Amino acid sequence: SPGVTLTVNEKIEIAKQLSRLGVDVLEAGFPVASQGDFDAVERIATEVGPLMIGREAHGTPMTIAGLARAVPADIKRCFDAISKAPKRRIHTFLATSDIHLQHKLKITREECVARAVAAVSFAKTLVDDVEFSPEDAGRSDQDFLCQVLSAVIEAGATTLNIPDTVGYNMPEEYGAMIKYLIANTKGSNTVIWSAHCHNDLGLATANTLSGIMNGIRQVEVTINGIGERAGNTAMEEIVMAVHTHPDFFPVYHTINTPQFFRISQLVSSLSGMVVQPNKAIVGANAFLHESGIHQDGVLKNKLTYEIISPETVGANTINLVLGKHSGRAAFRSRLQELGFGELTDEEFQIAFNSFKALADSKKRVTEQDLIALLSDQVSQAAGTDKAIFVIKSLQVVSGTSFATATVQLQNSQTGETTVDAAIGKSGPIEAVFSAIQRLVGKKIRLLKFDITAVGEGVDALGQVSVKIAENQGDETPEGEEEGPRSTSKQATYHGHGADSDIIQAASRAYLNAINRLVANENERLHGERQVDV
């Protein structure tokens, strides 16, 4: 998803929740893309691959898949990353549409077939489970697709994924394509057929369901429908469509649906991508009724206007309350229910202290609050060695004309404590951010600032998500007039913070992003020094 950067720890936490949810195959990343991507996939394969918690209906752990271009070096790198998973898969892809072959790859159809076969054949020497995707299948010649797919089946592919890469197809069109490919591809009955749809025209879910009706038995989906451009097919929408129509669709699912609301919030918190209130299944308004006619019907019988009960997707537990008198046992029990039962003693203590601090200032601590606090803890601990700067104290004075902020930071590596103050013409957030910039010795460009309330009331927990980049050269300093500027080639860093005080939440998010920026610079500098030696 554009603008989303997750740390390894954040990816692992999401992967654990996906395992509990009952996901069959987790495509953990693109190992050749960077060392960070490789490390994330490798750790997910090692730490999450064997997990069986919540997977009783499956009887097996998740398959951990890695993505690779149809290039030997990519495929080998992919295998190295997933090799420690009990169940592993290599997913390789190659474009097949004429527009991609002519303008991107600059190869003939014959060369395309040869490359696809070579990639699958090599992957098959490393793993038994190989998936192949003809990129831009939705705009490819279908007879040529049959030729390519027949060849890769013979080479050893076990899953054929048919992507509508640019979200171009109509539902009837996509379903008809799947039906044609299955009917005209040699060996089609020996593989699993998969759908991968994009939402550029708002049809990703409809296209995927059409595919299911025509022979698709694996669906490639994401939580909340996040993904490239307008996103991918939303997992919760596909599962609940099948769930509510057991006699209509020729398939069933083994997904632990009461986990949907929780993992939706976790992904939203860590990615910084807010779920629209009217989002199907997991939106804040999904089970609210405004119309008087609807309210009257629901009060008399919920089935009048609710085709899915809130309990089915876990929306009913979102307001269950813990208070300041709740003890460790009750808190630990609730964490286990939320899928955070594997915290170390130190991590549990940090979470418990955060809960107690929140309970002192807030009468009702809900499940939403706990997920926000735990998401913040995961984000802040994106490797404790990377939390270089820590806020020791923060004081803000704000008025109608300007605001002032005094910030004290500690460098966790040197132990040095520094203090600075700044004025914000636009308010206290600008003042705090300006002071932090001076203390860390960086000129920072703020690219995104989002704030949302968790729950309702004046004591609601505030969640802040920021995206930053370091100013390069003579770029306009923050706070001054600026024109449009592309940041597509700039390294960007995401930060997350949660607190009942939104100034504190903002400062935590901002410093979280800066710590990632500084840690990345240090790693790059360390790598350069190693090369020099």
TrEMBL record:
Belongs to the alpha-IPM synthase/homocitrate synthase family. LeuA type 1 subfamily. The keyword Metal-binding applies. Residues 1-261 form the Pyruvate carboxyltransferase domain. Transmembrane segments: none annotated. Residues 470-498 are annotated as: Disordered. The keyword Chloroplast does not apply. This is 2-isopropylmalate synthase. Residues 472-481 have a biased composition (Acidic residues). Keywords: Amino-acid biosynthesis, Branched-chain amino acid biosynthesis, Leucine biosynthesis, Metal-binding, Transferase.
